[in-house]
Write a structure and sequence with these properties.
Elements lengths: L11 H17 L8 H19 L9 H25 L8 H7 L18 E8 L3 E8 L14 E8 L11 E5 L3 E5 L8 E9 L14 E4 L3
Antiparallel strand pairs: 1-2, 2-5, 3-4, 3-6, 6-7
Helix pairs in contact: 1-2, 2-3
């Protein structure tokens, strides 16, 4: 999986410009954004230490190996502190607008709610009869190979089942169970021992049932003692 782009610039000159802009804007908005001056003083102190280290490496003709090493170490310390400060004081700060975050050069908050689409896939599942009147359900998407998996747009997998005689369809099954996990165990009482169990499964959207998936083909098993 590809990593998302880091919001902190990697080139040293770009980093210097970015941090200088951020510190300037935060300094001007400490009260408006409700930031503790004592906490921010740690950042400004590190900036004061960092600036001469950066200036020392600008001239390639005069800088030394020691200058480069000192800058690299100083930037690492300063950058780590900035990340922590941003995470704890800016990222989730409700007093900042997304325009403020853009001006600071930090990630904006996604306020757009993404609606999940209707599920059209059926559940591929199997039942495994286990001792003690237990039935293990192993479910997966039809596009997955072998391991259990949940549909990304489903909250749960819903099982409708009937004991004894065969149902005419999912609607004819009087019993229902749901699980947030693709592999789970259904525990039945002792009266179910020896009976046939017929089951149907579907992916379920718990917040909007109209977007739940269809029931597929049934599976049949026998409940063991």
């Amino acid at each position: 999986m590809a990593k998302s782009k880091d919001f902190i610039p990697r080139p040293d000159k770009d980093f210097y410009t970015w941090q200088d802009n951020l510190v300037t804007l935060v300094t001007a908005n400490l009260v408006a954004w409700g930031i503790d001056p004592v906490v921010f003083a740690v950042i400004t102190g590190l900036q004061t230490t960092y600036k001469p280290l950066f200036m020392a490496i600008l001239n390639k003709a005069t800088r030394t190996t020691t200058d480069i090493h000192s800058h690299r170490t100083g930037r690492k310390t300063y950058e780590q502190a900035l990340r922590t400060f941003i995470r704890e004081n800016l990222t989730g700060n409700k007093k900042l607008s997304n325009t403020d975050r853009e001006n600071l050069g930090i990630p904006v908050i996604d306020t757009t709610k993404t609606e999940r689409p209707k599920i059209t896939d059926t559940v591929f599942f199997k039942m495994v009869s286990m001792p003690g009147t237990q039935i293990k359900f192993v479910c997966r998407r039809t596009t997955d190979s072998t391991r259990p998996s949940m549909h990304p747009n489903a909250d749960t997998v819903e099982i409708k089942y009937k004991l004894g005689s065969a149902p005419t369809g999912a609607a004819d099954c009087p019993n229902t169970t749901t699980s947030k996990k693709a592999s789970f165990i259904l525990e039945l009482d002792g009266t179910a021992a020896g009976q046939k169990i017929y089951a149907y499964a579907r992916w379920k959207n718990d917040s909007d049932n109209k977007k739940s998936g269809p029931f597929g083909a049934s599976q049949t098993g026998t409940v063991t003692e």
